[in-house]
Amino acid sequence: MKFVNSLGSAAVSLGLCSLVLVGCSSEDRSDANDTLDNAAGTASSVASSVGERAGSLFDDAKVQAFVVAFRAQFGALADSRDDNAIKNLLTSTCTEIASGTDESAVVADLEFEAASGENRPTTEQAQRIFDQAALACP
């Protein structure tokens, strides 16, 4: 919300500078144009920052959703894993997907990677893990 307020403030400043330009002489307009350019740069910078942070928060939310879904659906596979181990499973799956590895090969890998002790996922479970990971990948 803080970022949205900053963006709104920059936009209001930009609008006010535009209104001031209407009543200025040509010399004053040059200075006002510089101020307007600075305000536009600030607004653009704030918008970029908000966009980057929103994207990061969204990615973090998808990762957390994957961890929660994995724990809920595959309790036996999740019991001996902490959250970081589940995130690592997601990361390795996303890396394989991004590198263009065939889906069936990734699913076959998940049958081994997602195993926990004597608990091994079935092919169907490995496919569900893949499907969920694909949704959470950047």
Provide the descriptors you would attach to this structure in a database record.
138 residues; mainly alpha; 6 helices; disordered N terminus
Walkthrough of the structure:
The structure is a single chain. By secondary structure, this protein is an all-alpha fold. 83% of the residues lie in helices and 0% in strands. The chain contains 6 helices and no strands. Helix 1 packs antiparallel against helix 2 (26-73), helix 4 packs antiparallel against helix 5 (103-113) and helix 4 crosses helix 6 (123-136). It is globular.
Please provide a brief summary of the model.
Helix content is 83%, strand content 0%. It has 6 helices and no strands.
Radius of gyration: 25 Å
Distance between the termini: 24 Å
The total count of strands amounts to 0
Give the overall pLDDT as a whole number.
Answer: 76
User: So how many helices?
Assistant: 6
Topology as a string of helices (H) and strands (E): HHHHHH
Shape: globular
How would you classify the helix and strand content by structural class? mainly alpha
The amount of beta strand, in percent, is under 5%
Roughly what percent helix?
A: over 70%
Low-confidence stretches: 1-22
Sheet with most strands: none
Question: Which helices and strands appear, and what pairs or packs with what?
Answer:
Blueprint: H1 2-22, H2 26-73, H3 75-78, H4 83-98, H5 103-113, H6 123-136
Helix pairs in contact: 1-2, 2-4, 2-6, 4-5, 4-6, 5-6
